[in-house]
Amino acid sequence: MREVLEGSQAVARTVARCRPGVVCAYPISPQTHIVEALSVMARTGELADCEYVNVESEFSAMSVAIGASAAGSRAYTATASQGLLYMSEAVFNAAGMGLPIVMTVANRAIGAPINIWNDHSDAMALRDSGWLQLYAADNQEAADLHVTAFAIAEELEIPAMVCMDGFVLTHATDVLELPTQEQIDAFLPGYEPKQVLDVLHPTTIGTMAGPESFTETKYLQHLRFLDAADVIQRWSDRFHDTFGREAGGLVARYDAHTFDRDREAPGANAEDIVVVAMGSVLGTLQAALPELRAEGIPVRLLGVSSFRPFPGGALRDALGDSRHVVVIDRALELGSGGVLTGCVGRALAGTRSRIHSVVAGLGGRPILEESLRDVIRRAHSRDLPTLEFMDLKAGGIPRPPVGATEVAR
Amino acid sequence: MTTVHIPFLQTGTLAVGGRLLEDEERSVQSQADRPSSLTKGHRACQGCAEALAARWVMDTAVEAADDKLIVANATGCLEVFSTLYPESAWKPPWIHSVFANAAAVATGIAASLHAQGRDDIRVLAQGGDGGTVDIGLAAVSGMFERNDDVLYVCYDNQGYMNTGVQRSSATPTSARTATTPAVGCQPGAPVGQGKSMPKIAMAHEIPYVATATVADLRDLEHKVRTAMSIHGARYLHVLVPCPLGWGASSAESIRLSRAAVQSGIFPVIESRAGELTDVQPIRQRMDVEEYLRPQARFAHLFKPGGEDALDRWRAMAERNIRHYDLLGERS
């Protein structure tokens, strides 16, 4: 049934239909609508056989999820920004203990200066926390990704963040078709923990590992992360086959002319400029790029759906013969450039690729179609620096900025 | 509860006061098939009162829960000395996550069990004073306020002993620690008596709060059993001398615990829903010196210039004796 829904409502309803056993809630903008909606469903009984715990901090939200998951329940929470950082110690811990918690991150900037609007700084700060990070391009995908996230996380015993742009997606209404309860029940296997606090078969979880075993523990975690790429792709394919639409996967390919999402789209050509991006800006790019095609600029679009694990192989395949990449970055690695660019660069090491990092939309600055087109035009005319801050306001900012030489090098 | 406090000559045995106890009165530890929840092979120091208390607490809780107990442990000595991979000294299902979150992890376990319809399985969380009174306080308070079905046990050795004896907010006045050295015009920990976690717990008006020491293990066991007979948030605060951190002989842990109680420094109490319901009266009054002198962390109190601090200790004991009527003068 197609219906008009706010992104947060869509996520909350889908999560409820995944039948979590424990939901932990702590408010933070722009995530709050999700746990508010779940609290109503917990009271009305729509969210059955589930404990809804109002915790006193995000740190406890993740900690309650850890306890719940270790005791054998499907556990869910949602957060953003400062909240994600506040819980970060427990976030790493959940991954280290292999607890397949699913958490929505309503991506938001990190202070100071305090800023409640959207960019990817929060999730990027925890990119090495050992969690999967799956990014939604729109609200349909945000809702759908939660279904596959539970399946993927539980198969791998790796927790998963579903990242959706704060406000831009969480607070936007769209026409959506949510998976029904029957569809999810048929699609998503029940949670069968492989390691559980069981009074009949007691185990000790969370022991101390010394120098003689810590490296091996991390190596095993690394191997499981390598397995994750195949598992993510398999569940994404299964979702596509079942529901007839795309959700997640490793990368999102787009048709070279219509810029519609197309899993069969061929790799890019040698003369193509490929724009790589993540999250809702992909929608803006879908709208912005056809005009450039019409101008004769050979531009392609490529979305990163799974940021962790980073799909280096799938990215190289989709880039085909192109060696000219413009990365739209929603988070900044101070003194070096965009965070996503760093990952793309590593995936393309040794390929002599020309990679531009375009830092855009920090702290909720609108990303305008015209600004995107301007950047691509300049890339095409070889007039785009390696690092560009899109729509940087003139006035009061030293030009060239202090340290610019270092950054340019 | 109102109890008659008589000397236990052989704690943990079958007899008390020269009389053989009835089966149901015997301590869990006196039974050949006791659970031994914290079993041999752990690496606690000789004379560690935390290990002793944890064993009694856990065995009692396991028995009270009919072997259906899950434990969440904060980071600290107790966790480190019991679970060095690949070994574990714990028999019940046991989880350690991080330092500050044992109470919240326990909440998660309890929530999960409730959602699964397994309310027969009980949940216990435990940590040291650092993990409870300092870094874990928010999570403990949150668990209290929600009245989650968890028994939280704090083993209070009055400092960060696992990291090498630094001050915590449970460290009492004038105590020497690695971060409150016994130098300067006010040697040791600053003025104050440490944060009183039992009072904070009582202020939450949770169903049950109690304090205990390893000097009276039967009392400790009784309190665990009482706590396990109740549902909702419960708090047990156990004073556990640390030979290393307190600078005392390993053989002194029980004697120091007793001196803390009998001098009025550590009131042994019970509370229900915020109301004080029982106070263990001082049986044989001791001077605070008997508590302080054997501890190297207070050595500077007995040198010239230590008189002020010693007076503060006496005042603290007097205040407790008055406040809790520890000499039974009002009753």
TrEMBL record, chain A:
Domain of life according to the entry: Bacteria
UniProt xrefs under Pfam families: PFOR_II, POR_N
Domain Pyruvate:ferredoxin oxidoreductase core: 272-367
Organism: Demequina zhanjiangensis
Family statement: Belongs to the pyruvate:ferredoxin/flavodoxin oxidoreductase family.
Alphabetical UniProt keywords: Oxidoreductase
SUPFAM superfamilies reported for this sequence: Thiamin diphosphate-binding fold (THDP-binding) (SSF52518), TK C-terminal domain-like (SSF52922)
Residue ranges constituting the Pyruvate flavodoxin/ferredoxin oxidoreductase pyrimidine binding domain according to the UniProt record: 16-232
Protein name: Transketolase C-terminal domain-containing protein
InterPro entries: PFOR_II, Pyruvate:ferred/Flavod_OxRd, Pyrv_Fd/Flavodoxin_OxRdtase_N, THDP-binding, Transketo_C/PFOR_II
From TrEMBL, chain B:
Record Pfam families: TPP_enzyme_C
The entry's keywords: Oxidoreductase
Domain Thiamine pyrophosphate enzyme TPP-binding: 75-238
Ranges annotated as spanning the membrane: none
This protein's name: Thiamine pyrophosphate-dependent enzyme
Species classification: Bacteria, Bacillati, Actinomycetota, Actinomycetes, Micrococcales
